[in-house]
Amino acid sequence: MLQIDVISIFPEYLSPLKLSLLGKAQDKGLVSINIHDLRDQTNDVHKSVDDTPYGGGAGMVMTAEPWAAAIDQITNDQDEVDLIILTPAGEKFNQKMAETFANKSHLIFACGRYEGIDARVGEYYAGKSNFKIHQVSIGDYVLGGGEVAAMVIIEATTRLIPGVLGNPDSLKEESHSITGANDEVLVEYPNYTKPASWRGLEVPEVLLSGNHGEIAKWRKAQAERRTQQLNKE
Ligand code: J9N
């Protein structure tokens, strides 16, 4: 079973992880998600988790020790841990990364706020043989914190675990995703359902033909066209 731990100063912001799909996956024993409050790792009355940046500049930096205390508490020395630090400066998240994470046994998400986490947290755990560090971004825009980014990655990852999805056929289609002439992944072709005629708009004739060869050809052509359109914008 995949163990997921998420560390945040806003643990209640992560409560959607308990809902519906993921809640059921947890009931089925396919995944175990635990949320941790970073402030539980502080000793001062103010429960402070940040300080001014060395070298000056705007904003605050999250101090290293509460993160390390949380991570150490979550981790057994023997287990293989993938530590995912959310940051707009990280490697861009994609489907291939989701597939990699879905095959891991223990993911820890560090959801920072402010101007980020003291860089020595990543450095320290990178020096431990049982840790793999991933600095990950979900896109080129700035969020208030890593919580939503962690939820995006957790949703994309856990739905790839066998038994989590209700309908595994849709996964099969994804893994045989349509590729173009240069083996690039194409976006999806347009989908239609009943009625065949709706507000004067018709479903393309070929989809009603029952000719599976022609349907596959048409879908591939549509996917090529849509991908080209997206890439030139
Ligand atoms: N992709 C991405 C991540 C972020 C974060 S993580 C912590 C603060 C902001 N913004 N955008």
What labels would you give this structure?
9 strands, two-stranded antiparallel ribbon, binds 3-thiophen-2-yl-1H-pyrazol-5-amine, 233 residues, elongated, five-stranded parallel sheet, 8 helices, alpha/beta
Please give a quick description of this structure.
The protein is α/β, with parallel strands linked by helices and 233 residues long. 34% of the residues lie in helices and 20% in strands.
Write up this protein:
- This protein has 233 residues and is an alpha/beta fold.
- The chain has 8 helices and 9 strands.
- The protein has helices spanning 20-27, 64-74, 95-102, 120-126, 147-158, 168-175, 205-208, 212-232; strands at residues 2-8, 31-37, 50-51, 61-62, 81-92, 106-110, 131-137, 197-198, 201-202.
- It has a 5-stranded parallel beta sheet, with helices on both faces.
- The longest helix is centred in the last third of the chain and has 21 residues, at 212-232.
- The structure holds 3-thiophen-2-yl-1H-pyrazol-5-amine.
- 3-thiophen-2-yl-1H-pyrazol-5-amine binds next to strand 5.
Model regions low in confidence, pLDDT < 50 over at least 5 residues: none
User: How much of the polypeptide forms β-strand, as a percent range?
Assistant: 15-25%
- The span between the termini is 42 Å
Number of helices: 8
Mean pLDDT across the residues is 94
In order across it, which strands form the biggest sheet? 2-1-6-5-7
Gross morphology: elongated
The main β sheet shows up as:
5 strands, parallel
What binds here, in terms of ligands, is: 3-thiophen-2-yl-1H-pyrazol-5-amine
What letter string, H or E per element, gives the SSE order?
Answer: EHEEEHEHEHEHHEEHH
Q: What's the helical proportion of residues?
A: 25-40%
Total E-strand runs: 9
Structural class: alpha/beta
